[in-house]
Every structure is written in structure tokens, then in C-alpha cells.
Amino acid sequence: MAGGYxxxxxxxxxxxxxxxDFTLDDDTLKRFIGGSCLAAKLFLDRYSLDADPLSPENPxxxxxxxxxxSGFPGTSRFSVCARSPQTGIWAESACGGxxxxxxxxxxxxxxxIEGRSQGPVTLTIDDSGVRITDASSLWGRDIYEVTDxxxxxxxxVKVLAIGPAGENLARIAAIGNDKGHFSGRAGLGxxxxxxxxxxxxxxxxxxxxxxxxxxxxxxxxxTAMQEIKDSAxxxxxxxxxxxxxxxxxxxxxxxxxxxxxxGGEFDLASNxxxxxxxxxxxxxxxxxxxxxxxxxxxxxxxxxxxxxxxGPGPEYETCAVFGxxxxxxxxxxxxKANEFCNRYGMDTISCGSAIALAMxxxxxxxxxxxxLGGLDLSWGNMDAVLKLVRQIAYREGFGDILADGAxxxxxxxxxxxxxxxxxxxxxxxxxxxxxxxxxMGLAYMMSNRGACHLQHFVLATEQGMASWPQLFDxxxxxxxxxxxxxxxxxxxxxxxxxxxxxxxxxxxVAYAIRPETLRDAFNAITGFxxxxxxxxxxxxxxxxxxxxxxxxxxxxKKDDILPKRIMTALEEGGAAGxxxxxxxxxxxxxxxxxxxxxxxxxxxxLLKLGLxxxxxxxxx
Amino acid sequence: MPIKAMTQExxxxxxxxxxxxxxxxxxxxDWEGSVSLVVNPDPAKNVPEPIYLFMDYWHGDVGEFVVxxxxxxxxxxxxxxxxxxxxxxxxxxxxxxxKALLQGKLKMRGDLPYVVRNIKTVNKVIDILGKVDTxxxxxxx
Lengths: 620, 141
Ligand code: SF4
What we know:
The complex is a heterodimer.
Chain A: E1 9-13, E2 18-22, H1 26-32, H2 35-46, E3 60-63, E4 78-83, E5 90-95, H3 99-105, E6 110-114, E7 121-126, E8 129-134, H4 143-153, E9 158-161, H5 164-167, E10 175-177, E11 181-183, H6 188-194, E12 197-203, H7 214-230, H8 232-240, H9 245-252, H10 266-271, H11 274-280, E13 282-286, E14 296-301, E15 308-312, H12 316-321, H13 331-344, H14 348-363, H15 382-394, H16 399-402, H17 406-413, E16 423-424, E17 427-428, H18 438-446, H19 458-462, H20 486-497, H21 500-504, H22 507-512, H23 515-526, H24 532-552, H25 582-593, H26 603-608, H27 612-618
Chain B: E1 3-4, H1 8-20, H2 24-27, E2 32-40, E3 51-58, E4 61-68, H3 70-74, E5 78-83, H4 84-91, H5 97-102, E6 106-109, H6 112-117, H7 119-129, E7 134-135
Parallel strand pairs in B: 1-7, 2-5
Antiparallel strand pairs in B: 2-3, 3-4, 5-6
Bound molecules: iron/sulfur cluster.
Iron/sulfur cluster binds next to helix 22 of chain A.
InterPro entries (chain B): SCP2_sterol-bd_dom, SCP2_sterol-bd_dom_sf
Protein name (chain B): SCP-2 sterol transfer family protein
Organism (chain B): anaerobic digester metagenome
């Protein structure tokens, strides 16, 4: 058997209350590796695309990859996958934390959860086996409470849980691992809620996935540790967390302001930045299992209206969406909003984007105070925002309209709302403005879960955090506000970066180490003997498989489009006067990717990548 | 008339250019502390020895700007080290200094969050550096 794998997968049917194991052959593992790529393959092979995403027929897959549990830096990750209730297309959301390695040590590479339980349940997987137990007493409680309650019996277990948002089928609901790590995007918490599955609890100690080459692994591990030690990026992440981007991004035009209508708000950024969080509210840095970078923030707010106990702090995305996007200069309010979203179990990007949309419509008079149940949703009014966050999770009042995300909300609200939403394929864009970085615009258009900064390494390559000329022809430094040469950069950064979610390695670690080191560690674990070309073609297969999945659900060229707001230039800030050249980007990208006029992978591309069954389905 | 790079005359010209810049004073109002640039030798490009440059910045003003020895360079609040070719790329704006740092092409000793917080000041002094009429050691002029 290939190295690095536990060797079996768990299939649980909650309708029947049954479970069993299944295995996959080495050839399948070598071609689809693990994580979200293997999940997409399993979905296409075994499940119907016709089922409503919130129906029992939509499987929820929790998948690790071969590097998970190896001890290599950044490989604590796992991907949660399903068809998205928010977008209707492929959904995957990778998460760090503690859950992945423990799941692997129970002897499973992944879990596929089917059906729907009659009432709330917890799924427990540990060394002694699998159990489905009643979770009625946990239903209705938030993620922090549930995690504490479960850990009160055994603090060594690792917990994946949903909060009220998932229970209430908010299509922006997230799944939390041990309070501080989230599978946030595309509504996977609602899929879990639709199954009446409150929590998945794992504790694995016995199973150990053998490595193909222990000595080779030790060497790669040593090299990686040294590279991380030498990396200014890793140092910056450790000191400032992902919010190190706030100051830098405001200069370059990366940070969206006032629902994507403004830029150049340097004082605002400074108030919300990683250095400010470090100076004022950071109590310690925290790491996912086996990560020397420790980019996670633990914060505490002692004074003011938004005091919080010591707990997980916000990432950059949250600081932007509850900060600059809402014209809120108060970092303590962002920390509070982050805590609320964590507790209720909601994706901060989607939740914040929906609220920022509502703020804009309120300013325009398209939403009245009456409709908001008396809330004054003026820019920067964080008391009102925090009330609305709760209403969204519980689908109360106006919160019900926003609970399915900004696009669903805009459809219900009408007026100018749809023009004010920045999304691709139904998923709100993360907090990186494509007007400042045109390659990111293309990456948003072509990412298989909708607008996304985590299905590729474009953030690293276009913004200059990493340069990998040994992988593909690239420059040390790209100008953000040009579309020239970006299709090539995006195409290759996708082919490499998409592997993060199949190998299951953190983006930040992959940015900090050389591709040679990642390749060597991967080979030492699996024994696959991949060279760079093999890695990149595995990435191509991954991307093409998911594209085909989406094509089968009706996605085509018409959906590869940036929204009107992004195609409207800003007047100030680092991205002033700039919009991506969509035609150029798409024309060049389509040629590189081998997409036809409809936006489908061409037959010869599918055959070359060994996706024969997908070809049959797309071309029947 | 171009000035030979990384000489005292060049440092004087750089300092004068910063002082003359209409925006510098306000952009750099919060910056305090000296910066050293260490240029690694590259004999093939006519840089036979390491070069040490010391620059003192203080709340929008500039103080000592000198070519110095290793000891003085290392006394600075921030010490940035890199190969000659990288520094030249930075001066020509072919390589952004922050990106060079993140990619490991330049190394820095000092308070990274402070630099991030004051990134506009960093960008401004590099911008001005590019405007000094310079004769580089490997230029064939
Ligand atoms: S860099 Fe941060 S997110 Fe990535 S594995 Fe380390 S601690 Fe987790």
C-alpha cells in the first residue's frame, strides 16, 4: 500500500445508524492523492449530483491526505467537502487545527457521512470504534459551549462541531474544530446541520501510517524546519498572524474598503492591523498541531464595550470584512464579531460581506430602519452589526434574509443590491481586491468553489510572498495592476497550489518552504516518486475534475465572470484607476487550461489526465 | 552627472534627495531609528568587499548618512543584508523590498511589525533612492 495512508475510509449512514469501512486502490490514491481531490472523485463515482445540498443524499466528506499525521509542518489539515447549499456547486473547505492527525490515528483517511439522523447526534470515532450517540442536550448550544462540554469528559478528544447557524441551516454556516479553526466557506455547516449531526469527535492514538522512506522523510523534515526558521514570511506570520497583510495590503490596493467602493484608508488599516493586535490584545500565538510558525492569534480585550475572554483571535479576512469593509476602526469590535461568528458557527467572510451589503443599502435608503427591526446600520455602527450577527445565526428578523449569504440576500432585496455584491458563482469574494491584483481576479473567476483565495497559490506568487522559478517560468516581482502574463501565473499557481488541499498542507507552510522540500517530503511519505511535472499534472487533474463536477451542475463560461463592482475602477488607494482585463485573462487562461467555448474541459484534456469517466459524462 | 553608488558622495546625494522630497516629512513622521544596508560582495560585478551603509531617520528628519564599517552598521535598529544584484534590483524597482524580504532575497534584523506598520515610509525612501542619478559598479559608463 502507498505510504502515508491509514488504508481505509469510514462510511457512515445517519439515516440507518450504520457504518462500514471501504478501501481505495493505490492507483486511485496516486492519481487523486487525498483531501478535497479524492473527495470530488468519490462524489462523482458514488453520489448523485441531483440531490438538494441540504437533503440526506448530499454526502458530507471529511478527508485527510497522506501527509497528515506525519509530523511534517503544516500537515494537520483536513478538508470538508460536499455540494454547497450556498452556491449549488462543488464545496470544499480546508481546516487546520487538531482534528486531522487524530482522525488519521483512528485508522481512517477520511469519513463520508450520508443520510440524516432522526434527531441530533454526535459521531465519535476512536481507537475502540465508531459510535453514534444522542446529542439532544448539545443542540442549540454554541460551538464553544459544545466543545467545552465534550472535552469536559475527556480533554484529549478533538471536536468538530456546528453552532446555531448550522442547526438553523444558514447557508453560510461553518464547522469549528476546537473553537479556533474553521471550515468556513460555502455553507458546509448547514450540510452538517441538515444531517442533524451536531459534532464529530475523534481520538486516535494507535494507528500509524507507515512512511515509504523514513530517512528521506527525516531529511526533508529537517530541511523544512530550517527553511521556516530562515523565512521572513514565517517570522511575520508568527509575530503578526495573517493580519500582517492589513497595512501592506492597504498600500498595494489589496484591502477592500466600504463594501468595495473605496481605498487608501491608511489610518483605518493601521487601527485594524496585525501589529496593533499584537501590541494591544495578543496574549499568545497558537499553532495547529506540529506547526512551528504558530500564526494563530489568541486575544483578550479587557476594556471598553467589547470585552472578550481570552480566546481565538481574528484572521486578516475577518479584520477586513468586519473592519475596513464596514468602515469600523475598532479592532475590539472585530474581535467580538469574530467570537460571535465562531460561537454561532458562521463564515466570517460571508457573514461580514452580507452585512456590509446591507449597510450600503441602508445608506442608500433601500433598507429602512423599520425593516431592520430598529437597527441603525450606519457604517461603523458595530453595536448594530453584532446584534445582526446573532440574528443571522438564529434566522431572526432581518437576519433571516442575510443568513444564506450576500447573493441570496441580494436576490431577495432587489433594487441595486445585486450590483453591490462582490461574488463569483455565488460565493462572496475574500478580502483581496482584484483591482489591485488582476491575477487574483482571474483566480476568483476560475476557482471551483466560487471566488476563492485558497484553491491556488496566486496570493503568494502575485503578491511576491514566494517565487518558484524552478516550478514554472515566473518573475520575482509582478506588478499587481496589470493583466499581462497573469493567466500563465494563475494557471501554474493553481496547478501547484490546489495540491495543498489534497496533500493536506497549510498554504503558509507551503509558501515558506521550497517546492523541492515539499516534493521530497511527499515522496518520502508516499513513495510515489513524483517530480515537479507529476505534481503539476496532479494539480491539473484536481482542477479539471472539480471543473467537470461543476460543468455537470450547469456551470459554463457565462459563470466565469467578475462582478460589476470589481469592473468599476476606484478613485483612490493602491488600485485606483485599475480594473482587470477580463477578456485577455480568460482568453489566455482558457487556452492554457484546454477549455472549450462552453467552458468545458476539452475531450483530449480529460483523456490526457485519465479522467475518462468524466469525459463520458460531459460528452454523452 | 551620475554619482558612484554606495560612496559617501552618493550617500550625501541620497540624503539631500530625501530632505528635498515634498512628501517625505509627513509620510515618515512616525519613523524613528537607524537603518543599515549591508551589500554582500560580488567581485564579478566590481564589488570586491562588503559595503556597509548607515542611515539615521527620525520622525521625518534625516541624520547621519554614512558609508561605515561593519560594527557601526550592526549597531543600527534595522540591518538589511543582501547581494549587490538584489539591491540594484530594489533601486531600479524591479524587485519590491518587502517581496525581496519575504522571498528571502534580502534579510532583515529588527522589529518586523514596526516595518510593516511603517511600510509607506519604507516604500518612500526606496522610491527616492531610485531617483538618485547613480553610476553602479557594474555599469559600463
Ligand atoms: S501557519 Fe498557521 S494556519 Fe498554517 S499550520 Fe501553522 S499555525 Fe496552522
